[in-house]
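Severity: low
Component: inverse-folding endpoint
Summary: output formatting inconsistent between runs
Steps to reproduce: submit the following structure tokens with default settings.
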């Protein structure tokens, strides 16, 4: 599902710069773009990989090398776009597919195509929530990412900001928003499921050669950046809640053509609209569109719904986690049951990231939700969900399995093993 962009016809007045009350105009604009009523229940998947030099897995590839490798990839059979993240992570993003099996098939084919395209180059890719071994370092020199680093430094979260940009990777599930009458209930269900998804999907017990003790160090990095940018959207009428969240969030950077300038003081978008001198010029609708792309709540409305709280996972697990999300949200029977199963752990965001299923309420919610999804899931992903349910029933998760392997052979060796897989 492709992000929306909005352009104004020639001669039309910008709805923000021409407004008597630009804050109210911006609120109306964001609320109006938040969701598109759609009953098709389509699914899009995005998976990020760490690019690994197989001859020297402790070395992070340099940017010209990353560019050359990506440029040399063939067209992928499932139609995924290929993009590159600040630390050289490679991301595959499928077009929206009619259902879960089609989306899983497309991403699986394109992941194989990515690995095949890299074969013979001396590089591989590892799908893990955090780079377990290599030091944190941004390799992508794009001015957007330079400005992001400068902003994080200025507002007091440089370590978490750099780690988030350069050393983490995610599995993202994109779903149609559904009929307008279901928007609020779908969002409330997804909000309650986030601790379950964090604990079940984690594959990041190490980051940059160290273990902090968090079950998901990827989520630890998100908890360490500005809460106004990464906390969940508040409960309420969904379009208004998203608009209020977006306008209260701090402006990270200002784009003028190809140049990006970091804001080094905390200025919300609403404050920019009300007092343009705080940024140096009035805000336009293009600035608002760009600002929305710098907000990272666990569930983000983009016309459709982006579920952004899952770690990237190896092939053994990511189809099951995609199936967990889609089944519990889009299957009516499973969704009704999941509301009750997930509710006791719904507010345990940090506990799920710190302790995973070692936290008793999180464990009960994860166990119940995975078993529920396994019963109702499409046959294409049911075996993986049954395997995940068995793993969790034994008191383990992908994260704990990975931690045990890293403890045995070291993070660099595990990064290499995953890249060879």
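Observed output (run 2 of 3):
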């Amino acid at each position: 599902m492709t992000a929306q962009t909005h352009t104004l016809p020639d001669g039309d007045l910008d709805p923000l710069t021409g407004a008597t009350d630009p804050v109210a105009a911006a609120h109306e604009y964001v609320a109006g773009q938040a969701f598109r009523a759609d009953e098709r229940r389509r699914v899009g998947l995005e998976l990020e990989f760490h690019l690994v030099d197989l001859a020297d897995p402790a070395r992070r590839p340099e940017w010209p090398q990353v560019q050359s490798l990506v440029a040399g990839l063939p067209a992928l059979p499932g139609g995924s776009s290929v993009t590159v993240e600040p630390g050289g992570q490679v991301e595959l993003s499928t077009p929206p597919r009619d259902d879960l099996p089609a989306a899983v098939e497309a991403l699986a084919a394109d992941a194989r195509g990515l690995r095949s395209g890299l074969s013979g180059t001396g590089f591989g890719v590892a799908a893990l929530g955090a780079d377990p071994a290599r030091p944190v370092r941004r390799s992508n020199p794009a001015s957007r990412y330079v400005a992001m680093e400068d902003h994080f430094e200025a507002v007091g979260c440089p370590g978490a900001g750099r780690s988030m940009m350069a050393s983490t990777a995610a599995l993202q599930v994109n779903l149609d928003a559904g009929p307008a009458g279901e928007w609020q209930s779908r969002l409330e269900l997804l909000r309650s499921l986030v601790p379950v998804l964090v604990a079940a999907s984690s594959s990041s017990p190490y980051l940059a050669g160290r273990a902090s003790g968090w079950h998901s160090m990827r989520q630890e990095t998100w908890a360490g950046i500005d809460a106004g940018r990464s906390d969940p959207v508040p409960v309420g009428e969904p379009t208004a809640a998203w608009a209020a969240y977006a306008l209260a969030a701090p402006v990270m950077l200002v784009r003028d053509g190809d140049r990006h300038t970091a804001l080094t003081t905390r200025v919300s978008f609403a404050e920019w609209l009300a007092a343009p001198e705080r940024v140096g010029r009035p805000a336009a609708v293009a600035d608002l569109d760009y600002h929305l792309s710098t907000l990272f709540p666990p569930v983000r409305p983009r016309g459709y719904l982006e579920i952004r709280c899952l770690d990237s996972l190896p092939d053994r697990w990511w189809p099951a986690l995609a199936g967990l999300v889609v089944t519990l949200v889009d299957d009516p029977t499973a969704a009704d049951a999941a509301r009750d199963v997930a509710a006791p752990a719904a507010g345990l965001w940090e506990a799920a990231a710190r302790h995973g299923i070692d936290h008793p309420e999180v464990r009960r919610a994860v166990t119940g939700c995975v078993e529920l999804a396994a019963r109702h899931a499409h046959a294409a992903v049911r075996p993986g969900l049954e395997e995940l349910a068995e793993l969790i029933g034994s008191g383990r998760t992908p994260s704990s399995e990975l931690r045990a392997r890293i403890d045995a052979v070291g993070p660099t060796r595990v990064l290499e093993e995953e890249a060879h897989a």
